[in-house]
Design brief:
alpha+beta, 4 helices
Amino acid sequence: MYTSAVIIAGVGVTYAAVPLYRMFCAATGFAGTPKVGMGKFEADRLVPVEDARRIKVHFNADTADALPWSFTPQQRFVSVLPGETSLAFYKAKNKSDKDIIGIATYNVTPDRVAPYFAKVECFCFEEQKLLAGEEVDMPLLFFIDRDVLDDPACRNLDNVVLSYTFFRARRNAQGHLEPDASDEVVQASQGFSGYDIAPRAEDRRKSEEKPTS
């Protein structure tokens, strides 16, 4: 915990913007963010540890009030061994009569397993456009890194919950798509509600431009 605090403090300026902070969390597993895009899926690490205890991964799905979609996991849970890849599916349907782009956020609990929860392929890597009335299956390929067995904090770990929240997408000041919700709501969906995160650059500029009384 102390080492993590030093790392966060040391890169505080670099990761001041919320999007970069989230990228940092995705790379380190900080704040319950599953690791993504690590490029370290060597074949010898994707071999199930047969004598280990299975871990039950539960799937949760939520949608923001502003998004007229249904979004549900196609399985309640799967039981996996460390090092074993597993494929799961979610189903999404656009219940409106208009085409809509959605963006999903994600989080895994308990936080301590996040550094070992790796997603090889996921619908959350990019925005999803559903045509009016369209229904699609969304795949998720993941594994729990075998190094979890060497972490005393993860000893006797039996259950993990992977949660997704879909938001309607909007374009920010830079023209990039982002969840159409307040920063507080988005951060809470990612497990960041208990952490102090710097405001976005455009919000800081607005604050600096306000006339002083």
